[in-house]
Each structure stands twice: as structure tokens, then as C-alpha cells.
């Protein structure tokens, strides 16, 4: 079934690659990844600190933003151990069970980000289309319930993945194509029947990314309709400007996902480095960009940052 000279096994450890074709001499990438992590961690911690300390930010929009920052910290911290070990110390071995745990957390945080972006789009929809009832619709208890619901949905849907991988024998070696563990990458070195993994993986993607992105588009279609009904052009621009940070965050998250999917489906002969670079963009760019986007584009965040700097000078 697996060939005459291939024996299926479950490896005690898996080997991480880093950048395919550049296994040697890639230590120069370590400072780049270190800077990316530093920007992401400091930026998201700063957003969380501002929301907690600044009374003017105690509003639904910024509560959802703090959820996004907390989730982005989770994305960064879930990849950090193996990425730094690979590029800084050239240590490429990861335990099989540890790899499954990392895979679970990476995918869980990624799916949670999609749900949080959907919740933020609903926040903008209510703020623009039903302003009078904004405070009564988005109460603190409902915001907390929304956050817990996103966490529960992602955790429950992703929970079977480690067990679905663990049941499979490995007969194509133990070398992965990234410096972290992803479900599609693990599937490339397994053998046996992976139809359940593929079908369930497709179901989860549609159930999360597909539904979330559809409702985000619907929210903005309704927002656009409401904005175009405003008589004053100045008020239209003001209303649209409140959504710009979120639109940038949505694009930073979904564009790499769509690009990875398109390459996987229609460019199967693409060099391995293309898949690795796109996956790297997908995991590293949103956590780094989101705090920068909201710091620059959101006036209240910008003012809160300036206020902190003024206090530090005094």
C-alpha cells in the first residue's frame, strides 16, 4: 500500500526547514524575524495598555480592538519558539506532540482573528446604521459573550485536528517545509487515507473564513448604503473614515489567505519558497500591521499615545 521499501511510522520528532533551499547560512534572517516579533509584541501590548488605562477608550470599538490585539499576541507567541530556535540557534527538531500543540494554537488564533474582524464589522454597522441604539445593542455583557463565543467556536472546531493527524502513519520522512507546524504541511509527509482530514479541513475553512468574510462584506454593503443616504458629503467622509482602520485590518488578514489558497489551487508547481513566503506573510504581517494601522488611523488611539508621551516628558 505504501510501497515496498517504505515503512509507515510516527516520528518522535519532526524537522523544521526554515526557508527551503537555504537551510545553511540563513542566520541573517534572525534579526528580521526578531524585529517583526518585537514590533508585533510591543505594538499589541501598547494597544492593550492604552485601552485599559485611558477612560475615553472604554467603548465597544476599543474593547473589540483589545480582543484583536490579544489574539495577535497569541499568533506571534505561538510561532515564536520554533522560529527563533530555527533561525537564531539552528535548532530544527521539534517533538511530534509539541508540533501538534503548536499547530492547534496557530490555526485556532488565525480562525479567532477572522471572528473578531467580523465582530468589529458588526460594531461599525451598528455605529453607523443604528446610532441611537448603539449603547443598548453593544453592552459590556454582550461584548464579553461575543468574545467568549468566538473563542469557543474556534477551540471546538479546531480541537479534532491534532487527533486527526496523530492517527495517521508517516511514511514520507519527517521534514516539514516551515519553521513552524501547520496542518497542510503535516499532511504532505503522512500516508494512508487523509480524506477525513481534507474534508474536515475544508468544512472548517468554509465554516469560518467563508461565513465570516461573507458577513463582513454584507456589513459593509449595508454601511455603504447608509453612508450614501447621508446628504452631507463631509459627514459621508467622516462616517467612512471611521471604518478605514478596520478595512485595512481585514485586507491585511484576508488578502494573504486568498493568495495562499489561489497558489495552492492553481499554481501547484510553484517552488516551495513561494508557499513558505506567503504563509510567512499570512502569519507575521497582520499582527505587526494592526497596531500600526490603528495607531495611525484612529484619532482616539493617536491622542492617547500622544497623551502618554506628554506625561512621560513631564
Structure notes:
By secondary structure, the protein is mostly helical. The chain has one domain (13-307): Up-down Bundle (Rhopdopsin 7-helix transmembrane proteins), CATH 1.20.1070.10. It has helices spanning 29-53, 60-88, 96-129, 134-137, 140-158, 160-166, 183-187, 195-228, 233-241, 244-266, 272-297, 299-313, and strands at 13-15, 93-95. A two-stranded antiparallel sheet has the order 1-2. The longest helix has 34 residues, at 96-129. It starts with 12 loop residues before the first strand and ends with a helix.
The average pLDDT value, as a whole number, equals 86
CATH topology: Rhopdopsin 7-helix transmembrane proteins
Number of domains: 1
Strand content: under 5%
Oligomer: single chain
**What gap, in angstroms, lies between the N and C termini?**
74 Å
Strand runs, count: 2
Overall shape: it is globular
Number of helices: 12
Helix content: over 70%
CATH class wording: Mainly Alpha
Strand order in space, largest sheet: 1-2
| Stretches with pLDDT under 50, minimum 5 residues | 1-6
| Sheet/helix structural class | mainly alpha
> Could you name the CATH homologous superfamily?
Rhodopsin 7-helix transmembrane proteins
Order of helices and strands: EHHEHHHHHHHHHH
Q: How is the biggest beta sheet arranged?
A: 2 strands, antiparallel
Can you name the CATH architecture? Up-down Bundle
Task: Report the C-alpha radius of gyration, rounded.
Answer: 22 Å
Protein name: Olfactory receptor family 51 subfamily I member 1
Subcellular location: Membrane
Membrane topology: Multi-pass membrane protein
GO molecular function: G protein-coupled receptor activity; olfactory receptor activity
Amino acid at each position: 500500500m505504501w510501497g515496498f521499501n517504505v515503512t509507515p511510522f510516527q516520528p518522535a520528532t519532526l524537522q523544521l526547514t526554515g526557508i527551503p533551499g537555504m537551510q545553511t547560512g540563513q542566520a541573517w534572517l534572525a534579526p528580521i524575524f526578531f524585529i517583526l516579533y518585537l514590533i508585533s509584541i510591543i505594538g499589541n501590548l501598547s494597544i492593550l495598555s492604552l485601552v485599559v488605562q485611558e477612560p475615553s477608550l472604554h467603548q465597544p470599538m476599543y474593547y473589540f480592538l483589545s480582543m484583536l490585539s490579544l489574539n495577535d499576541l497569541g499568533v506571534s507567541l505561538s510561532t515564536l519558539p520554533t522560529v527563533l530556535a530555527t533561525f537564531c540557534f539552528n535548532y530544527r527538531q521539534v517533538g511530534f506532540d509539541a508540533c501538534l500543540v503548536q499547530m492547534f494554537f496557530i490555526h485556532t488564533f488565525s480562525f479567532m482573528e477572522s471572528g473578531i474582524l467580523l465582530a468589529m464589522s458588526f460594531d461599525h454597522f451598528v455605529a453607523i446604521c443604528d446610532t441611537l441604539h448603539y449603547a443598548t445593542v453593544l453592552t459590556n455583557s454582550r461584548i464579553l459573550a461575543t468574545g467568549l463565543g468566538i473563542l469557543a467556536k474556534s477551540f471546538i472546531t479546531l480541537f479534532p485536528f491534532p487527533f486527526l493527524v496523530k492517527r495517521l502513519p508517516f511514511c514520507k520522512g519527517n521534514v516539514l517545509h516551515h519553521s513552524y507546524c501547520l496542518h497542510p504541511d503535516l499532511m504532505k509527509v503522512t500516508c494512508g487515507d487523509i480524506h477525513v482530514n481534507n474534508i474536515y479541513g475544508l468544512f472548517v475553512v468554509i465554516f469560518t473564513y467563508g461565513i465570516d468574510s461573507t458577513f463582513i462584506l454584507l456589513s459593509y454593503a449595508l454601511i455603504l448604503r447608509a453612508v450614501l443616504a447621508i446628504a452631507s458629503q463631509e459627514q459621508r467622509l467622516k462616517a467612512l473614515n471611521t471604518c478605514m482602520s478596520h478595512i485595512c485590518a481585514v485586507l491585511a488578514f484576508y488578502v494573504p489567505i486568498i493568495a495562499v489558497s489561489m497558489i495552492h489551487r492553481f499554481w501547484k508547481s510553484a517552488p516551495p519558497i513561494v508557499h513558505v513566503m506567503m504563509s510567512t506573510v499570512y502569519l507575521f504581517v497582520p499582527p505587526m500591521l494592526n497596531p500600526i494601522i490603528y495607531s495611525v488611523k484612529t484619532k482616539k488611539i493617536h491622542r492617547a499615545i500622544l497623551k502618554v508621551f506628554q506625561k512621560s516628558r513631564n
